[in-house]
Every structure is written in C-alpha cells, then in structure tokens.
User: Which sequence fits this backbone?
C-alpha cells in the first residue's frame, strides 16, 4: 500500500496561505492522512453566476475534475468566493460523494451571523471543520445524526461553531474502513 | 432520526435534479430523478416511492397536474412542490391538492432538513395510523397472557428466546388458547417491536381476497382496483406478520407464500415489479398439519419453512391450575370495565370452573366471567352464577350415528353389569331376546359375571 496524498489547491487569490496549512494540519492530525499543497489555480469566470454573484459548486467541481493532479487521490479546492448549488442559497463546501474532488468556501467563515468580522483563529477553525467534513464525504461518509459529530450537517455559522472537531465512533470506524477499502494508506504518525 | 426514504426528484432542469440527487445521497436516501411528469409516472408505476420533489413549472404536464395524478394513484406518496416562480396562488393550490410542503428555490440547506424531518414524522404517523386502524377491528379482549402451570411456564420461557431470533414460528393449539397473544408477546420482545404487528386470519378469507390482502394490488389489477394499495407484506415492513389458521390456506397460496419466504420479495397483483419486503413470520393453526400433509392438502416444504420453531399451547383442560388465576384476572378486568363491584369468587364457583372442560379454552372462560359479572347482583360470584355452563361430559363425544351410540351404550351397560344379560336388559328397558339380537348384530362382548 502506497502513501497517498490529499491535494490542497487554492482557487483564485482570496485564499490566505495559512488557511491551507491549517486545513492540511487538521486532515493529517484528525484523519491521519498525508496532504500536499498544490500550485494554485485561477477561478474560471464561467463558474461565476453573475446574477447570484456566487460560484456554482457543480461547475467548479467539474473544472477541478478536468485538471491533471498527479499523485493525489483526492483534491480539495479552497476558494475565497461564495459557493452555491442551484437549489440552495449557499453552501460552505461541496464534495462528490465517494468521489475525488471537494470544495471549501471561506466567504462566510470570516464573519459572524450578523456580518461583523470574527477573530481569525475562529475563522481558521471553521475552515478546518468544513474541510474535514467535505474530505469525509470523499470517503463516502454520509451526514450523521449525532450532533456531536463533525459529519452532522450545518449550514449556518452558529451551527458550525457548535460542532466540535470530533467524529462519532461510527464515523471514525467508517472512515478507517473506507480508507482500507480504497487502498489508501494512512500516515504513520510515530 | 430520519429514516432512509425512496425519493424521486422531478424537474426539467438537470442541474436541479443533480443538486437534489447529490444532497439526498449524503443522507443515504435512495434517489431517482425524472425530467418530466410522464417519466415520473412511468417510474412510479414500476416501483413505489416515499417522497417526490416536484418542480411546479415544467413543459408538458406541470407540477400541479402531476401532484393531482400522484395523489389519486398513490395516496401514500408524499409530494413536496418546488418552484422558482412562487406565488401564493400556486402554493395554496398545491397544498389543497395534497402537497406536504412547498419550497421556493433557492432555499437554505437547513430548510430542506426541516422538510425531511417533517415528512419523516408524517410518514411515521401515517404508518402508525394505518397499523392502528388495521388492529382496531381485530382487538381482542385479552390483555396479556396469564398462567402458572408448567405448560404455560414452558411457553413463557420460550418467548424471549424465540423473540431474539428472526426465525419463523409455528404456534399450535386449540381455538381460544391464546396463540395470537403469544405471537404478540414474541413481537413485543423482539427487535421489531417498534414496527407493525399485522394479524391476518387466513381462515376467514377466500383465496383471492387473502391474496389481495397479503400482496396488495396496482390500479386496474382487477375490477374495482381503483388505486394502488399496499398489501400486508408491505404494511408489516420491519415488523411481524401473524398468519392465523395457516392450515386453511390453499395449495396455491402455500406456493406463493413459500416463494415470498425464499425470495423476500413480492409482486403486487397486476404488477411485475418485485418489491423487497422485510418481516418476521409467525403462523398459527388449530389443525393437525402433519395429518394435512399426509392427506396431501398441505405442502411439506412449506410446513418446514414456517415451523422453524414450534410452540404448542396446551388447552385449558390440561392446565386446570391456571383456571382460578385466569378467572380472577378476568374478574378484575370486567369488574373495572363494567364498573360493577364484583370482586370475589367463592370456592364453590372455582370448583365449578375447574370441573368444566372449556372446549373454547381461555376465550370461553373470559366470556363466562364477563357474563357472570354483568348478570351478578352481588359482589361475589358463586356456583349459581355459572349455572349456564354445561356439566362436564368426561370425554368429548364427537358426532356419531345413532347405531354407533346404541352400540357403545349397550357395551357400557354390559360392562357395568359384568355381562349379566338380564340385569343389562332391565337397565336398557328391552327384553333379553332383543338384547341378544343387538349383541350379535354389533358383535359385542359379554364379560363374565
């Protein structure tokens, strides 16, 4: 079994480098998977919905899927812009269930529900939570009913803040099994 | 907790269908999509869905028309109307036509979670309502199983053991012994306890009615089948199906049931679409199935399928020590129900009850106590309150011809008189030569005096 990296790629210019490092650290620390930071990509204009002024998650995922990323079995794209799927007002992130590509939007994470700026460490923690949640979708984990599990769905800032960075035993077991099934090696931490 | 649902998204925009599809997949739901109303109806005809998300504005058949048709054909299917062209008028129209919810695109993801939670609750309530409605007509007056005799203790010991498995159970015993109560107790102690317990009396239905009740039908399957209807196999999903008087079903029905037990799939009448079913089977009979197998009216392979675990419930006359206990139990029950202060049973009354053979078993005992309580003028029931019970007859006498009765009676009198012809003739009030003729005719034996 070869060690396989989760590739992290910044989409556009609005992604602080520190955010990618924090996301990488969380994926390595909580999921025990190795990560690699890839060269950033420009956000294609075709993915911007000019009426909504939001990026279409479906189109962006398709764009990512068309890019050649060598040596990474999973790719997580991080963007500063707002993200949507057509039926929803917004999403913090989006992933192909059991697939290879996911997105994390930072747009709503740096503000409180009232729109005031929030402390940066809190915003970084939110980004890490969304990234971990979407990464697990790539390993085919479903939304979890346990409100103390990171796979529990949240679509607003208070709900996201209320989630601990923690997986329930069921989801933990599932991701371990999924990695084994997919032949993805976990990073050796010691 | 949300249960896993079969969902269909009907929208002419592919991107909307895909968005819904991916979203519901994240919750583990089974999802299909249709680009227009006709495709949705075609899919519904093939397989049942719990929930439809329908766009109101579509080319051809619009969402409201599809809603009307779905509600007419599949009243159990929930429909949520979605649109980007929301108006109060269309919302009111949709809700009046039976839509469960109305969503305006785009909505917050949490909103769809709330809708799903609501639908899930509605579905649970609908299932419970259907279950209770089914049960209402079959409710028995038994509250629970009462008994301290050894045969009943054996049954009590078996219930939790059997409940822990999913194996088919065959309950045997005379009518009125409480087979259905034992079946209910097994269900109540099993992991299926939160799902329906459906009891079907196979002996009370014709073959075609039973087939329809068990398998359900699609619209137009036969004259009068105006709507699709779930059968008991589907209604019992996750729970227990209790088939009473299984010995009365036809050979064809035995074959059909055997196939269901093997495949765990059914097809509604008039449909070729298999539907997965998940139920635990408990059967009961008061007939001797081994004899039916020998007679060729009961299939041996079916017998072994339903009789993985067999529980025999003894008739009341074989566990007479239960009679006082049961009598007091029913006395409490009916003195409360009738608000009559009848709460004592004399020793004489108990003797009468214990001496009686109870061919109708516990059910007959319950009826007797109820009748006595209703008619009683005092707080205490004594032997006179049970004068309506026929005295015990010793062995139950099956219907016999007059000749057979005469033959047995003469033999009994001869035995009693030790073979003394004169004495027997006197008792029988016939002359000796007539008695001799009858002895010869019936080939009776004269015991030496």
Assistant:
């Amino acid at each position: 079994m070869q060690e396989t990296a989760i590739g992290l790629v910044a989409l556009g210019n609005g992604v602080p480098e520190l955010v990618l490092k924090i996301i990488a650290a969380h994926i390595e620390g909580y999921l025990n998977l190795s990560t690699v930071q890839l060269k950033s990509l420009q956000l294609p204009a075709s993915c911007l919905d000019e009426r909504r002024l939001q990026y279409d998650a479906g189109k962006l995922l398709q764009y990512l899927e068309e890019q050649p990323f060598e040596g990474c079995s999973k790719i997580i794209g991080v963007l500063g812009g707002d993200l949507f799927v057509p039926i929803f007002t917004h999403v913090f992130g989006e992933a192909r269930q059991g697939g290879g590509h996911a997105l994390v939007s930072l747009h709503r994470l740096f503000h409180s529900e009232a729109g005031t700026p929030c402390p940066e460490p809190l915003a970084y923690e939110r980004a890490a939570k969304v990234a971990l949640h979407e990464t697990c979708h790539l390993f085919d984990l479903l939304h979890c009913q346990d409100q103390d599990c990171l796979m529990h769905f949240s679509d607003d800032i208070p709900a996201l803040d209320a989630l601990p960075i923690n997986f329930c035993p069921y989801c933990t077991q599932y991701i371990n099994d999924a990695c084994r099934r997919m032949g993805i090696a976990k990073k050796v931490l010691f | 907790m949300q249960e896993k649902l079969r969902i269909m998204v009907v929208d002419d925009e592919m991107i909307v269908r895909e968005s819904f599809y991916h979203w519901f997949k994240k919750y583990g739901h089974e999802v299909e999509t249709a680009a227009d109303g006709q495709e949705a109806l075609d899919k519904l005809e093939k397989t049942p869905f719990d929930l439809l998300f329908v766009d109101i504005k579509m080319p051809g058949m619009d969402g409201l028309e599809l809603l009307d048709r779905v509600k007419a054909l599949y009243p159990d299917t929930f429909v949520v109307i979605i649109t980007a062209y929301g108006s109060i008028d269309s919302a009111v129209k949709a809700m009046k036509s039976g839509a469960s919810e109305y969503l305006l695109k785009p909505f917050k993801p949490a909103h769809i979670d709330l809708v799903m939670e609501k639908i899930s609750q509605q579905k649970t309530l609908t299932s419970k309502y259907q279950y209770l409605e089914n049960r209402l007509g079959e409710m028995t007056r038994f509250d629970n199983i009462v008994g301290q005799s050894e045969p009943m203790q054996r049954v009590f010991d078996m219930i939790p053991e059997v409940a822990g498995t999913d194996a088919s159970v065959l309950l045997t015993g005379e009518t009125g012994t409480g087979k259905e109560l034992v079946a209910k107790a097994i269900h109540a102690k099993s992991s299926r306890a939160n799902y329906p317990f459906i009891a079907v009396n196979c002996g009370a239905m014709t073959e075609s009615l039973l087939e329809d009740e068990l398998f359900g039908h699609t619209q137009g399957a036969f004259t009068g089948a105006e709507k699709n209807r779930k059968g008991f196999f589907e209604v019992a999903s996750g729970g227990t199906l209790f088939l009473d008087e299984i010995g009365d079903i036809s050979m064809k029905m035995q074959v059909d049931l055997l196939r269901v037990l093997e495949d765990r799939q059914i097809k509604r009448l008039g449909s070729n679409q298999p539907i997965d079913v998940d139920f635990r089977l408990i059967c009961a009979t008061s007939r001797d199935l081994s004899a039916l197998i020998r007679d060729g009216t009961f299939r041996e392979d079916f017998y072994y399928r339903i009789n993985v675990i067999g529980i025999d419930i003894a008739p009341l006359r074989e566990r007479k020590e239960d009679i006082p206990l049961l009598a007091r139990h029913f006395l409490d029950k009916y003195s409360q129900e009738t608000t009559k202060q009848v709460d004592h049973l004399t020793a004489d009354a108990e003797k009468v009850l214990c001496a009686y053979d109870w061919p109708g078993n516990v059910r007959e005992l319950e009826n007797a106590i109820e009748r006595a309580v209703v008619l009683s003028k005092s707080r205490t029931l004594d032997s006179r309150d049970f004068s309506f019970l026929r005295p015990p007859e010793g062995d139950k006498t099956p219907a016999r011809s007059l000749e057979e009765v005469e033959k047995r009676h003469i033999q009994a009198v001869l035995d009693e008189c030790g073979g003394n012809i004169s004495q027997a003739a006197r008792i029988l009030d016939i002359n000796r030569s007539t008695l001799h003729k009858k002895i010869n005719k019936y080939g009776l034996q004269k015991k030496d005096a």
Notes: Helices of chain A lie at 17-31, 57-66, 120-138, 157-162, 169-181. The radius of gyration of chain A is 16 Å. Residues 5-181 of chain A form a domain with the Collagenase (Catalytic Domain) fold (CATH 3.40.390.10).
